Amino acid sequence: MDRFMIHLKNTGYLPHDAPVLLKKADQLTSEMHAIIRDTRVSKRYLEFDVSIAKEYLDLLVES
Questions:
Q1: Nearest-CA neighbor of 20 among 43, 39, 6, 3?
Q2: Could you tell me which of 4, 40, 52, 58 has the fewest CB atoms within 10 Å of its CB?
Q3: Range of the domain at 41
Q4: For 5, what's the count of Cα atoms within 13 Å in the CB-facing half-sphere?
Q5: Would you tell me how many other CB atoms lie within 10 Å of the CB of residue 14?
Q6: pLDDT tens readout for residues 4-36
Q7: How far apart are CA 24 and CA 41, in angstroms?
Q8: DSSP conformational letter for 56
């Protein structure tokens, strides 16, 4: 597995939403054999620390 940082535009989440986003991301990626290690929320971005096999990376980003 490789490790990636995925950055998404924040459309209104606050730092206290990070645990909920982490749980949701984990649920959405359960079929992809991904590990969502951490989620960080800033004013501009959502950042997900992800371990996933390279062959599943495109599927993850498109989801």
A1: 39
A2: 58
A3: 2-62
A4: 6
A5: 10
A6: 999 999 999 999 999 999 999 999 888 888 999
A7: 14
A8: H
